[in-house]
Amino acid sequence: MEKNQEIVVELRDVNKWYGEFHVLKSVNLKVRKGEKIVICGPSGSGKSTMIRCINRLEEHQRGDIIVKDTLLTGDIKNIESVRRDVGMVFQHFNLFPHLTVLENCCLAPMWVKKIPRKDAEATAMKFLERVRIPDQALKYPGQLSGGQQQRVAIARSLCMNPEIMLFDEPTSALDPEMVREVLDVMVELASEGMTMLCVTHEMGFAKQVADRVIFMDRGQIVEENTPDAFFLNPQSERGKLFLSQIL
Ligand code: ADP
Ligand code: MG
Predict the structure, then answer these.
(1) CB within 10 Å: which end of the chain, N or C, has fewer?
(2) Closest by alpha carbon to 123, among 165, 82, 162?
(3) Boundaries of each ABC transporter domain copy (predicted)?
């Protein structure tokens, strides 16, 4: 990752409340093109909320979020523009159960980008090959293992040609033997230069690909460091406590 790359995501003094509950407290973050960031922290610390604000699945109330020169507002055109640049993969895959794998991958390109079915299918097959499940294209999500479903979810996101990918604990709902196959795909994506923000506690993955680890607690970014520095020698007491619990 080159230091002089443009900044593609910026959070400036971002604050969010759920009712009275102050869930994000003045979060500041700059992500450069091609950068890989791993976000970790205790359950309930605001990790999901923060990354969901970046593509406006959640709305922040104060501060600015800028994605590729676009200031995120409530305007639908603006939200659509940001979502074109930002793909997201969730813990629970969120595939459409009544559509085949191929149809899941073609839906958004056809309806949002108006790409003809034939072209959308060709692109989908290309990405299903990249995640190593082209043979599953005509099956329904329920017929696939969790690891395969998550790889479909990644392929589906890539079909929209995003510049930035958000991952929210993509392996934490998987049986242990399926974690590796999903991480392998993510490592490959990282090596191809994708800008990635990943909420994950997979330390091996973080050490292998992350430029930075961000540790969140109680709605704040408490610590930010290289993976080696953070995992070997966290600076904050909260970071130390967290690591002692996940190790
Ligand atoms: P994390 O992903 O780090 O586990 P979340 O961002 O999901 O944390 O949640 C942060 C806090 O906000 C938690 O205390 C959670 O209970 C609360 N929260 C999350 N979503 C909502 C919601 N829609 N309404 C009210 N509180 C919420
Ligand atoms: Mg979460």
Answers:
(1) C
(2) 162
(3) 9-243
CA 19–ligand 1 middle distance (angstroms): 11
- Ligand 1 geometric centre to CA of 218 (Å): 10
Nearest alpha carbon, ligand 1 atom 22: 18
Residue nearest to atom 13 of ligand 1 (CA): 44
Dist CA 193 CA 36 (whole Å): 9
Looking up tokens 């490592």 gives 187
Secondary structure class of 189 (helix, strand, coil):
helix
pLDDT for residue 247 is more than 90: no
Ligand 1 atom nearest residue 169's Cα:
2
Question: Tell me, what's the ipTM?
Answer: 0.98
Answer yes or no: pTM beyond 0.90. Answer: yes
Output the pLDDT for position 150. Answer: 97
Q: Could you give the CA distance from residue 183 to residue 188 in angstroms, rounded to a whole number?
A: 9
pLDDT for 1:
60
Distance CA 167, CA 90 (A): 6
Look at ligand 1, atom 5, and give the residue with the nearest C-alpha. Answer: 46
Any ligand 1 atom below 6 A from CB of 59: no
DSSP H or E stretch at residue 182: helix 176-191
The DSSP secondary structure of 166-179, one letter per residue, reads EEESTTTTS-HHHH
Query: Cα(57)–Cα(44) distance, rounded to whole angstroms?
Result: 17
Determine the average pLDDT of the residues in 125-137: 97
The whole-number average pLDDT for the span 149-176 is: 97
